[in-house]
Amino acid sequence: MAGYEYVSPEQLAGFDKYKYSAVDTNPLSLYVMHPFWNTIVKVFPTWLAPNLITFSGFLLVVFNFLLMAYFDPDFYASAPGYKHVPDWVWIVVGVLNFIAYTLDGVDGKQARRTNSSTPLGELFDHGLDSWSCVYFVVTVYSIFGRGPSGVSVFVLYLLLWVVLFSFILSHWEKYNTGILFLPWGYDISQVAVHYV
Questions:
Q1: How far is CA 161 from the centre of its chain?
Q2: Given this model, what pLDDT does residue 107 score?
Q3: Which residues have a catalytic role annotated?
Q4: What would you report as the CA-atom Rg of the chain, rounded to the nearest whole angstrom?
Q5: What's the pTM?
Q6: β-pair partners for 181
């Protein structure tokens, strides 16, 4: 079916030559998270598909978003004088967010460990990561909330753009250089959320 091809033969041939290449200079990642993930990945059986790990982490992020949307639909949970989110919800969201972050850090290690790393798997991982950027930022917004002592919706909008722009920029750089330079902001945001 000529004319209906989305990927040219030359582009398909590029998949065979593709090799994952990333540079992570964040001290938090290098000295804390990667050693932690290297330990955790050994717990997973080798038959467990890396894409299942990726998708499971993404579902946890979506679940957190839905949970916070139910308990704090207007983002006033932190504002004085408004109904607050029950403590157990904050605990569940914090724990599940840490698990999701861990699964996101482990999926690629599982792929390399089981020799099942593919360009399509990386595309799946980073595609879901791009969606997670939105869900994660909106969920975290409940911590700061609206109101006189909170953050405006416009600031939330700007934060979403900053997170998405840094995500897109790092992948654009990878497209041009062949190396994914991982931004520091994501790891720092994870630590900030767990200690707020």
A1: 15
A2: 95
A3: 126
A4: 19
A5: 0.81
A6: 23
Using CA atoms, how far apart are residues 41 and 35, in angstroms rounded to an integer? Answer: 10
Tokens of 5: 């091809």
100, 30, 34: which is closest to 63 by C-alpha? 100
Give the DSSP per-residue string, 135-186.
HHHHHHHHHH-SSTTS--HHHHHHHHHHHHHHHHHHHHHHHHHS-EE--SHH
Residues 24-83: tens digit of each pLDDT: 888 888 899 999 999 999 999 999 999 999 999 999 999 999 999 999 988 888 777 777
CB of 187 within 8 A of CB of 37?
no
Q: Name the burial class of residue 128, with classes exposed (0-12), middle (13-18) and buried (19+) by CB atoms within 10 angstroms of its CB.
A: buried
Domains of the chain: 20-195 (1.20.120.1760)
Sign of torsion, CA 143 149 152 157?
negative
DSSP state of 196: -
Through-space distance between the first and last CA atoms of the chain, rounded to whole angstroms: 56
CB 74 within 8 A of CB 146: yes
Instruction: Kindly indicate the confidence band of residue 192, based on its pLDDT and cuts at 50, 70 and 90.
Output: very low
Structure tokens that stand for 182 in this block: 């991982």
pLDDT band (50, 70, 90) for residue 189: low
Residue whose entry in the numeric block shows the structure tokens 């654009």: 172
